Amino acid sequence: MLRRDIDIPYQHLPFTGQFNIFPLGSFNSELARLPHRHDHYQLIWFTKASGQHIVDFVSYELEDNMLFLLEPGQVHQLLDCRKEGHAITFTEQFYFSNQQERETLYDFTHLFDTASGYGPIYISDRAAPALQLLTELMYREKNGTGSNRSIIKHYLNAFLLHAEREKKRNAAKAIAPLRGDERVVHLRQLLEKNFRVQHQVTFYATAFALTPKRLNEITREKTGKTVTELLHDRLVLEAKRKLSFSHKSVKEISYELGFEDPAYFSRFFKNHAGIAPQDFRDVMFK
């Protein structure tokens, strides 16, 4: 039996190293049907697929040519899935192996940004052949004699740039695309660093030299939500992850998320998730 203070470990794919690419059809594991997470970045390109892909407890109906970008720690699972395509996994250390590369290479981290909400990228018929060629080149280089890390990295870089272009194309086709605002991006970053300990809008407004009212006006205009709503969304997501992937008690989780009163945390979670924390955990482990 696992100790209650030890987190369930991240699921490791049966491939090692800082970079891997493999066909989705070659990976058939019942573990994929269960909620799980990885400690690296993942690009999952479903060239042909049906079924459901659940990411951070939100279900997406799979279609052909859907690309999912997953950050380390994001929760996902596949249900009733028929799939063809490719999975590319890599670490930040693989991509940025030194400070010079961090300063000169394309910074892929903003590609994974969810400031305007998470969702898959729909790959156009025009872009698909280029992405397919790049995956074939990555396979060839990785599996060939004398595999060269720099060559793989350049192919990966090109794949990411194509993905970014398709993401922008998707946004342009949206019915009512949200106008960008760097302050919202920075707010998301600030929330990510501080949501466990800073639950007051005043803290975040001060960082922008704005009043709480003005910051709320900006975030509501750009995201449809107030700062408090964004903060609560992040707290609930983290609570769901901890309830699903650790044996820590609800009381321990509440303290880790900055709630001094576990009973208040339970009410907070039920109000936002529609289910009590322990009931959510029980459902996840059925």
Automatic annotation (TrEMBL):
Pfam families linked to this entry: HTH_18
Keywords linked to the UniProt accession: DNA-binding, Transcription, Transcription regulation
**One GO MF term, please?**
DNA-binding transcription factor activity
Query: Which top-rank group of organisms is this from?
Result: Bacteria
What the entry lists under SMART domains is as follows: HTH_ARAC
Listed InterPro entries: Homeodomain-like_sf, HTH-like, HTH_AraC, Tscrpt_reg_AraC-type_HTH
Please give the PROSITE patterns that the UniProt record associates with this protein: HTH_ARAC_FAMILY_2
Ranges for domain HTH araC/xylS-type? 185-283
What is the protein's given name?
Helix-turn-helix domain-containing protein
Q: Which source organism?
A: Chitinophaga agrisoli
